[in-house]
C-alpha cells in the first residue's frame, strides 16, 4: 500500500515589470498594475507573496499578488531583500502604531491606526473606536493573511473587539472565504453602535453598517479649526451627516447651529450625538436645528443667512469621467453658500474627491468668490490629518479651503 505523497511546494512567485514600473517602485509607489507585468514564472492565487526583480535580476520589492485585480501587486516592502516572517510583520505593525502614540491625548480614543498604503499596509485600513478596532480590506489578497493580522492585534489589544469591513468589490469573493462585511472576527460586540471620544466630544460610530469604518475620522483637524471660528456665530453645517462639525461649532460658542442633510438616519444620529454631549454647558447652550433636504436645492432656495458655513459633501467624482462635473458642482455650492454669508462670514469648503486635485478644487471655490462680487480673503487651505497622511499622489483626496467674505 503506497503512502500519499506531499504535494511539491510551488516555486517562489517571481515577476519582472516594465522599466517605467521599476522606476515607480524604486520611488516608493506601492502599486504595480497588470499592464506593467512583463514576466511571471507561474500562475498564483490571491494573497501570495510576489517577489519583483529588476532587469539585472536584483531584488526590487515584495508584495501581495491578486490575479483578479488591475492592481496586480500591492507592495509591502521595497529596497533591500527581506524575509516577511513573524518578526517582520510584528515590527511592521508596531511602526504604524508608534506613529500614532504622540498624536492623541486621553480625551481622544477614536482615530486611524493604519492608513493603508501610506503606512505600508496596501489595501488595509485599521481604525480605533474606543475599545473596538475596525479592519477594512480593499483587496482579497489580504484574506489569506487575516488570521495573522488578527493575531497581531490580539497581542496588542487583548480586550478589544475587532470588526471586519469589506469594500463592495470584494464582498462576493469574501463569502467564498467565509467572511462577511460587518463580521465580528474577534471579541464581543453587544451592539453595532460604539461610543468613542474625540477631543472630549462623544460620538456614535456604526462600525457594522456605517459609511467607511463607521465615522469620518479624517475631518477631525478641520472640525477643531471650525470650533476655533464659531464663537458668537450662526453656523450652517451642510451635508452634516452625524453632526461632527455641528458639535464642534457648538462647543466653540456658536449661538445657533443648523445641520442639513438628505438622510433622516444621519440627522437622527446628529440629534443623538448632541444628546450624549448635553452635559457640556457650551454644547447645551447652542440651539441645534436639523433640516432634512437636498443640500444643493436647499442652498439655492433658502433665504436664511449665516456667519459660518461648512460644506463637506460626499465624493462628487467617484471616477475620472465625473471630474469636470464635480469641479462645476463645487463651484456652484460655494457660490450659493457665499450668497448666504453675512459680512465677515466664513466659508469652509471641503472635498474628498480623489479625482479632483487640490488645486482644481481650491480654484473652483476661489472663482466662485471672485464672481460673487464680494470682497474676500483666504484664511488657509488644509490637507490630510496626521493619522491619515498620504505618501503618494493617488492617496491624496482630502482638501479644504477657508474664505472670509466681506
Automatic annotation (TrEMBL):
Residues 16-76 form the RlmI-like PUA domain. Coiled coil: none annotated. Residues 113-365 form the S-adenosylmethionine-dependent methyltransferase domain. The keyword GTP-binding does not apply. GO terms for biological process: methylation. The keyword Repeat does not apply. Keywords: Methyltransferase, S-adenosyl-L-methionine, Transferase. Pfam families: Methyltrans_SAM, PUA_3. CDD domains: AdoMet_MTases, PUA_RlmI, RlmI_M_like. InterPro entries: PUA-like_sf, PUA_sf, RlmI-like_PUA, SAM-dep_methyl-trfase, SAM-dependent_MTases_sf. PROSITE patterns: PUA. One of its GO terms (molecular function) is RNA binding. SUPFAM superfamilies: PUA domain-like, S-adenosyl-L-methionine-dependent methyltransferases. It comes from the Bacteria. PANTHER family: RIBOSOMAL RNA LARGE SUBUNIT METHYLTRANSFERASE YWBD-RELATED (PTHR43042:SF3), SAM-DEPENDENT METHYLTRANSFERASE (PTHR43042). This is rRNA (Guanine-N2)-methyltransferase. It comes from Deinococcus puniceus.
Amino acid at each position: 500500500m503506497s503512502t500519499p505523497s506531499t504535494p511539491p511546494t510551488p516555486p517562489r512567485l517571481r515577476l519582472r515589470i516594465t522599466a517605467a514600473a521599476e522606476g515607480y517602485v524604486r520611488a516608493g509607489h506601492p502599486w504595480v498594475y497588470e499592464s506593467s507585468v512583463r514576466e511571471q514564472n507561474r500562475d498564483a492565487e490571491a494573497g501570495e507573496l510576489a517577489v519583483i526583480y529588476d532587469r539585472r535580476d536584483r531584488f526590487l520589492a515584495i508584495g501581495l499578488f491578486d490575479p483578479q485585480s488591475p492592481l496586480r501587486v500591492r507592495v509591502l516592502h521595497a529596497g533591500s531583500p527581506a524575509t516577511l516572517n513573524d518578526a517582520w510583520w510584528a515590527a511592521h505593525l508596531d511602526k504604524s502604531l508608534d506613529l500614532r502614540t504622540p498624536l492623541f491625548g486621553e480625551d481622544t480614543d477614536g482615530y486611524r491606526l493604519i492608513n493603508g498604503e501610506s503606512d505600508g499596509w496596501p489595501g488595509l485600513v485599521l481604525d480605533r473606536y474606543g475599545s473596538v478596532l475596525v479592519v477594512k480590506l480593499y483587496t482579497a489578497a489580504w484574506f489569506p493573511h487575516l488570521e495573522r493580522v488578527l493575531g497581531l492585534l490580539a497581542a496588542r489589544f487583548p480586550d478589544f473587539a475587532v470588526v471586519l469591513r469589506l469594500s463592495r468589490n470584494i464582498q462576493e469573493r469574501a463569502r467564498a472565504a467565509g467572511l462577511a462585511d460587518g463580521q465580528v472576527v474577534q471579541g464581543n460586540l453587544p451592539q453595532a453602535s460604539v461610543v468613542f471620544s474625540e477631543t472630549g466630544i462623544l460620538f456614535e460610530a456604526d462600525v457594522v453598517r456605517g459609511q467607511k469604518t463607521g465615522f469620518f475620522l479624517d475631518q477631525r483637524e478641520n472640525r477643531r479649526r471650525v470650533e476655533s471660528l464659531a464663537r458668537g456665530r450662526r453656523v450652517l453645517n451642510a451635508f452634516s451627516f452625524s453632526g461632527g462639525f455641528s458639535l464642534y461649532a457648538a462647543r466653540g460658542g456658536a449661538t445657533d447651529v443648523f445641520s442639513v442633510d438628505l438622510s433622516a438616519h444621519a440627522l437622527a444620529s446628529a440629534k443623538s450625538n448632541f444628546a450624549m454631549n448635553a452635559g457640556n454647558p457650551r454644547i447645551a447652550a447652542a440651539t441645534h436645528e436639523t433640516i432634512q433636504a437636498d443640500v444643493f436645492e436647499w442652498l439655492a432656495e433658502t433665504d436664511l443667512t449665516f456667519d459660518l458655513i461648512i460644506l463637506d459633501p460626499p465624493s462628487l467624482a467617484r471616477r475620472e469621467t465625473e471630474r469636470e462635473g464635480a469641479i462645476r458642482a463645487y463651484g456652484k455650492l460655494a457660490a450659493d453658500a457665499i450668497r448666504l454669508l453675512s459680512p465677515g462670514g466664513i466659508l469652509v469648503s471641503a472635498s474628498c474627491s480623489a479625482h479632483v486635485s487640490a488645486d482644481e478644487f481650491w480654484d473652483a471655490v476661489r472663482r466662485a468668490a471672485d464672481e460673487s462680487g464680494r470682497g474676500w480673503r483666504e484664511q488657509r487651505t488644509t490637507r490630510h490629518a496626521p493619522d491619515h497622511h498620504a505618501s503618494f499622489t493617488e492617496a491624496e483626496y482630502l482638501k479644504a479651503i477657508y474664505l472670509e467674505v466681506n
